[in-house]
Amino acid sequence: MLLPLLLRGSTAKHYIQQALSSTRLCVNCCNIRGLATSSVQLFLRRTPQRFLNQSRGAKTNKRKHQSQEDDWKKRNKTVLTYIAAAGVGMIGMSYAAVPLYRLYCQAAGLGGTAVAGHDAEQVETMKPVRERIIKVTFNADTHASMQWNFRPQQSEIYVVPGETALAFYKARNPTGKPVIGISTYNVVPFDAGQYFNKIQCFCFEEQRLNPHEEVDMPVFFYIDPEFDEDPRMARVDNIILSYTFFEAKEGQRIPIPGYG
Predict the structure, then answer these.
(1) How far apart are CA 14 and CA 20, in angstroms?
(2) pTM higher than the cut 0.90
(3) Within 10 Å of residue 213's Cβ, how many Cβ atoms?
(4) Alpha helices in the chain (DSSP H)
(5) Closest to 243 (Cα-Cα) out of 170, 201, 183, 188
(6) 246 close to 146: Cβ distance less than 8 angstroms
(7) Phi and psi for 43 in degrees, rounded to 5?
(8) What is the pLDDT of residue 17?
(9) How far apart are CA 168 and CA 216, in angstroms?
(10) 244, 242, 241: which is closest to 181 by C-alpha?
């Protein structure tokens, strides 16, 4: 009787221990699952925030990049505008440079250019410097395309500073068609140009000659009395007045006096 009871007690104790072990395993599993769940939740909480921060940073960088591109485009447009304006200005100045330079040279007598115009009162009151005699030599040239016959009627004359003088050139059109010409001039030596004053001249004005027409072209001038007071002119006793005729054509530029 006792043996069956003991066997039953052992069996019951064994089952109880197995039940306790199973319970512990369940508890451990639950703890592990809880930790896993917490880790997953933490990862899920943090990961979207990082991605969100990265997305916001990418959008911010994109806006900055777009803003820089817009700024560069505006600067490029401004620079191109300035360049275009400068180019237009330079083209305009290039067309105006020659006539402006002629006017300046005629006013200042630079580049071997005789001074244009005169002071009527000075002409009436100036006193000739009789002891200073200057030979004025006249020269005439034509451009290769110009078909006129052009020459001075006198090769030279003698004048004194402060005295007016008159000389003539002759031009003839030997062709069978009308030809329009325009002339430039200079004075040699160049430094004497500022003292060589023209009262009347045919330079820089279009001259039309009909077929076989011939005309006389006067040059009325004087040498300023201050010529005798300039140390640079002390050894100058010969001045050359030279004219060159060109055929006047549309778009053709006349060489600058003294440098043509």
Answers:
(1) 10
(2) no
(3) 13
(4) 2-108, 120-125
(5) 183
(6) yes
(7) -65, -40
(8) 58
(9) 6
(10) 244
